[in-house]
Specification:
The complex is a heterodimer.
Chain A: H1 2-15, E1 17-22, E2 25-30, H2 37-44, E3 63-66, E4 69-72, E5 85-87, H3 100-107, H4 117-130, H5 136-142, H6 154-163
Parallel strand pairs in A: 1-5
Antiparallel strand pairs in A: 1-2, 3-4, 3-5
Helix pairs in contact in A: 3-6
Chain B: E1 7-10, H1 14-21, E2 27-30, H2 36-41, E3 49-52, E4 62-65, E5 68-72, H3 77-82, H4 84-89, H5 91-97, H6 103-108, H7 111-117, H8 123-130, E6 134-139, E7 142-147, H9 148-151, E8 152-154, E9 157-158, E10 165-172, E11 178-184, E12 194-203, E13 206-215, E14 222-223, H10 225-230, H11 237-243, H12 258-278
Parallel strand pairs in B: 1-3, 2-3
Antiparallel strand pairs in B: 4-5, 5-10, 6-7, 6-10, 8-9, 11-12, 12-13, 13-14
Helix pairs in contact in B: 5-8, 11-12
Classes of the chains: A alpha+beta, B alpha+beta.
The complex binds flavin-adenine dinucleotide (FAD) and FE2/S2 (inorganic) cluster (2 copies).
Residues 111-116, 148-151 of chain A line the site of one FE2/S2 (inorganic) cluster (FES).
Amino acid sequence: MLALSFSLCRKELAVGQVSITVNGAEHILELEPRELLVYVLRERLGLTGTNVGCDTSSCGACTVLLDGESVKSCTLLGVQVDGHEITTIEGLATNGTMHPVQEAFHEQHGLQCGYCTPGFIMAAVSLLDETPNPSEEEIRHALEGNLCRCTGYQNIVRAVQAAAGVEV
Amino acid sequence: MIPAPFDYEVAESVEHAVELLGSREDAKVLAGGHSLIPLLRLRFTRPALLVDIGRIDELRYVRDAGDKLAIGGMTRHHNVQHDPLVQEHCPVLSYAAGLIGDPQVRHRGTIGGSLAHADPAADFPAVLTALEAEVVIRGPEGERTVPVGEFVTGVFDTVLRPQDVLTEIRVPKLGPTGWSYLKFTRRAQDWATVGVTAIVRRSNGTVDSAAIALTNMAPKPVRAKAAEQALTTPNDIEAAAEASLEGTDPPSDTQGSADYRRHLARVLVRRALGEAISS
Ligand SMILES: Cc1cc2nc3c(=O)[nH]c(=O)nc-3n(C[C@H](O)[C@H](O)[C@H](O)COP(=O)(O)OP(=O)(O)OC[C@H]3O[C@@H](n4cnc5c(N)ncnc54)[C@H](O)[C@@H]3O)c2cc1C
Ligand code: FES
Ligand code: FES
C-alpha cells in the first residue's frame, strides 16, 4: 500500500506544479493530469459559481474565460491552463459593483432558475469583447453553446443587447 | 465524468512531440481537446500518455505561400474563421469554420485536430476535400505530404501513424469562384446531419469546373465527381443533384436514416450549386 501511494505521489509530482491565475490571484496547485478545469475551480478553489450542467461539452453552464475568451471548463484539463489566466463569474464584479453584463441580466430579468446564468454571462462577456455591437442575430448565434431550460432566451438576448448599449 | 488516469507531457516543439509519442505505447496527441477530452471523459479511449502540442506556438499560423495558403495544424477554428488571408483567398473555409460547434468550441478546437479526428460528420474534412488541400505530416522519418482525399481512410481513421504529428494544411487559393457551404443540423451547435461544399468556376454562361464534396454521406468525405461532371451549364443543377449520390454510403443514426440523408444530399446539392453559381 505504501509503495503504491508513493508511486502515485511521484506520478503526480512528475506533472510538476501548475500555476493558474484565477480572477487575478495566482494559485500554485499540484494536479493530476485528468482533473478537469471545472472541478479544479469548484472543488480545489471553492469557486462554485461555475456550474456543471451536462458534463458532455454541450450546455455551456461551465463557461469561463481563458485569457479573455469563452471556453467550456468541463472540456479542458487543469494542466492545460498552466501559466494562463482564468476569469470566473466571481471575478467579474469590481469593488462590489456588478459588471455591465451582470447588471443587464439583472435589469432585463435574463434568468429564472439561474443555473445557466454564470455560463451565459461569461459567454456574453466574451462576445462583447470580440464584437462590441452585435446584431440580434449575432447574439443568438454566439450563444448557441449555452442552453437555458427556463427562459426561452428572449430576455437573455435582451440583456446582452442592453449590455451592448442597445435601447431595449 | 472523470477520465481514467493518464500521464501528461508538454511538447516544446514538433520534434519533441514526435519523440514523446515514441516514448510509450499508447501515447496520443492532445491538441484543442474538443474531441479527445469528451472521449476521455466517457472512457471510450484510455491512452497511457497525452502529449500536449497546445504550447507549440509555431504550429499556429496562416501564411501566404504563393498560390496556396499554409495553415498551421494548431490554428484554432476561431482564427481560421477570422483570418484575413483565409477570408480573402478561401472564404468557404472561413465560413465553414464559423459554423463549427459554438464560440467556446471554436476558441479551442483546431483545424489539425478536426482532420486528425476524421469524424465523418465534421465540417473541415469535406470542405478541405473540395478545396483539394494537402496535409503535411511530421514523423520519425521526417516530413511527408498527403492529399486530403487520401488522408482520411475511414470513420475516425487516417494515414497518421502513432508517432505522427499533423503540422500544416496547404489550401490552394480559390481566385474568382462562386462557393457555398450548406450544413443541415437538427439543433444549433450540432454536427452536420449532411453538409455540402460547392465551388464553381464559370465563364459566359457555362460552368468551367465545379468541386462538390459531401459531409457525413459516407465513412469519409465524398467528392461528388459524377455531379461535378453533370454540371456543364447552370441549367444542369437538377441533374447534378441527382448524380450527387453516386459513391455515397450514408449512415443511419439518431440524426437521420440513410434514406433521409440521401434526400437531404440531393436538396442541399441543388441549393448549394444555386448559391455558388449566383454568388
Ligand atoms: C460541443 C461540441 C460541438 C462540436 N461541433 C462540431 C461541429 O459542428 N463540426 C465539427 O467539425 N466539429 C465539431 N466539434 C469537434 C471540434 O471541431 C473539435 O475541436 C475537433 O474535431 C478536434 O480538434 P481538437 O483540436 O479539439 O483535437 P483533439 O480533441 O485534441 O484531438 C482529436 C484527435 O486528433 C488527434 N490529433 C489532434 N491534433 C493532431 C495533430 N496535429 N497531429 C496528430 N494527431 C492529432 C488526437 O490525438 C485525437 O485523437 C464539436 C465539439 C464539441 C465539444
Ligand atoms: S458542463 Fe460543460 S458544457 Fe455542460
Ligand atoms: S434560467 Fe434556468 S436554465 Fe436558464
